[in-house]
Specification:
Length: about 425
């Protein structure tokens, strides 16, 4: 495969200024909220499956430090590939021991031979210590208000004691309504929001799905709800695919844990097809499955890659994309005007299927239901997608969707940091 690396200027990190001196407050004196010169933020994602949670956090972190060059963000995640996904200036990582998802609600340690309870306790200690040491003005949690097994609760307690603010970020669609409402009740969503959170960010649009109506979320649990629009990470053209006489079709299944059937159908559909086919297995695909798919690709004349760090930067040089229905993949492809064939995941949640069909109903992409997946159906869908131009897709997308979510979230986070409590009084730099 001819992917050329295009050098881009290295980001220059700003030099932090010296914090001002601190005076002692007299007993009983009211402490005014400090205005941070260099506000600090901590972003959390549980990361049981896929890359979506941390990718959203990284996109918001980059927008935040772009809006305020003095701001810094500590991203708590267990994703191995976090550095490959791109860290902006003043962004660093608190690496948590890994968890992997088992079924709909189960988790287990990824590598360490530890029981789940012990692993949760370990991660909880790390998160709480990070809040006490880093002293963020605002903590942003993606998806889970208390984290897996309540691992974030100690950090939220420490944050509140220090005068910080907490925000819950939710992707546009969680699951089908009955299951989501039941999950929210079982996990005590209303109580968690009421006890710890100042606001909810919805990374989507009410016109696509309004969680207040569909999931019953909002009636006083949080002080306010902000619809940010879709969060899309900016992608510099660090990679490109050298063109040719045939259209290029790229197939990716995100992290790759459960995308084998889709790539297999794509490879079979691409054998002898009039397009140039490229399949990307994903960094989390099992070794045996990756080797099997690579063998099929070689036999079919399909180019095969394990992982491309800046996959979004390739979208400008392909003529169609085959993917699952993950939030980040669809948002990145649609914002670039790329024609899409989507085969959404339907287990353990219907989230991807709901999103894919909502977008398909607005004429934004092609959908193949997983139960109907075959090489023939795949080939027909790709042929239809290749009939659409990038300009046509872009016009349809701009008519329906908003992609300014990262900037809107960053602006709101900075506003909240300005009214946060004494956490802003950091020790002076040496």
């Amino acid at each position: 495969m001819s992917i050329a690396l295009v050098p881009t200027p290295a980001a220059v990190e700003p030099v932090a200024g010296r914090a001002g001196g601190q005076r002692r407050h007299r007993p009983g004196e009211r402490v005014q909220a400090a205005v941070p010169r260099a506000p600090r933020f901590m972003f959390y994602s549980h990361d049981g499956i896929g890359l979506g949670h941390v990718r959203r956090n990284l996109a918001v972190a980059r927008a935040l430090t772009h809006a305020d060059a003095s701001a810094s963000v500590l991203v708590a995640t267990s994703i191995d590939e976090v550095h490959d996904l791109g860290l902006g200036p003043n962004v660093d990582v608190l690496r948590l021991p890994g968890l992997r998802k088992i079924g709909k609600d189960g988790y287990a340690a990824t590598r360490l031979p530890m029981e789940l309870g012990a692993m949760i306790a370990l991660r909880s200690e790390l998160l709480t210590s990070a809040v006490r040491g880093f002293r963020p003005a605002v903590l942003l949690s993606d998806r889970h208000p208390l984290g897996i097994g309540g691992e974030l609760e100690g950090a939220l307690e420490a944050l509140r004691a220090q005068g910080g603010r907490a925000i819950l970020g939710l992707r546009d669609i969680i699951d089908e309504p009955v299951a989501t409402r039941a999950e929210f009740r079982e996990r005590g969503m209303a109580g968690a929001l009421s006890a710890y959170y100042d606001e909810v960010f919805v990374y989507g649009q009410a016109a696509i799905l309004d969680p207040r109506l569909v999931y019953g979320l909002g009636g006083g649990e949080a002080r306010s709800m902000t619809f940010c629009g879709y969060v899309v990470a900016p992608t510099a053209p660090t990679h490109r695919i050298a063109g040719g006489h045939r259209p290029i079709v790229l197939a990716t299944t995100g992290g790759g844990e459960d995308g084998g059937r889709i790539l297999e159908a794509f490879i079979a559909a691409s054998a002898g097809a009039p397009w140039r086919a490229i399949a990307v297995a994903g960094p989390q695909a099992a070794t045996r499955e990756r080797d099997r798919l690579e063998g099929l690709a070689q036999a079919a004349g399909v180019e095969f890659l394990t992982f491309v760090p800046s996959l979004g930067s390739l979208l400008g040089s392909v003529d169609a994309l085959v993917s699952m229905g993950g939030y980040n993949t669809l948002a990145e492809a649609l914002t670039s005007g790329t024609p899409i064939v989507c085969v959404p995941r339907t287990r353990p949640r219907l989230e991807q299927a709901i999103r894919a069909h909502a977008f398909a109903a607005r004429g934004l992409l092609e959908v193949i239901d997983p139960d109907d997946l075959s090489a023939e159906r795949m080939r027909e869908a790709v042929e239809r997608a290749l009939l659409r131009s990038r300009d046509q897709v872009g016009r349809d997308v701009r008519r329906v969707l908003e992609f300014d979510g990262a900037r809107r979230a960053a602006d709101r986070l900075l506003a909240l940091a300005r009214i946060a409590g004494p956490v802003a009084a950091y020790p002076a730099l040496p």
